[in-house]
Amino acid sequence: MNAQTEKLLIPGAAGAIEVARDVAPEACGVAVIAHPHPLFGGTMDNKVVQTLARAFVQCGWSTLRFNFRGVGQSAGVHDEGRGEAADLLQVVEQLAPQGPLCLAGFSFGAFVTSHVVAALAPQRDIYKIALIGTAASRFNVLPIAAELHERTLVVHGEADDTVPLASVMDWARPQVLPVTVVPGGGHFFHGQLPLLRSLVVRHLRA
């Protein structure tokens, strides 16, 4: 993301996990960000993921982006979300074991993040959650516990042709979980990344 980005390799269930860490000055906590689908070119260097990282750093959060198994220098092979959730949990356990924690994900990463939120929330306080372009039409995205709704930002592009907005509304409706819709926005928010960043910053500062 910048010259200060630190690259790490940590042990995971499938072997090494490649992590990029950006440390915020006087950080108030750590945010872990999950990237889009590995089989369709998704990596921790995806522009939406980097936009999320910049928003968190701007608000005083150190950030951890990481490559799911089989991507970049991360060992292993794609595991349809199960192993990827284990990867995310390993990053949290090893690099953010205590203190304030935020979780964020884009597309497939939002699906994985929903499962990690469900696993962690009973024993760990999660300060804020950001789910962007949530892949609700393609995967079993878990509902967000009602007590976490005020801490959760869901953003989706109105014109997303990868994950139709209707599928996210179908997921959110039974929970009465608000969805922030970017007018005319596509799945990758081309031309609208500054707006996405400002929405995340506003959520973190609320």
UniProtKB/TrEMBL annotation:
The keyword Metal-binding does not apply. One of its GO terms (molecular function) is hydrolase activity. The keyword Protein transport does not apply. InterPro entries: AB_hydrolase_fold, Hydrolase_4. It holds the Pfam family Hydrolase_4. Keywords: Hydrolase. Residues 46-135 form the Serine aminopeptidase S33 domain. It comes from the Bacteria. This is Alpha/beta hydrolase. It comes from Hydrogenophaga defluvii.
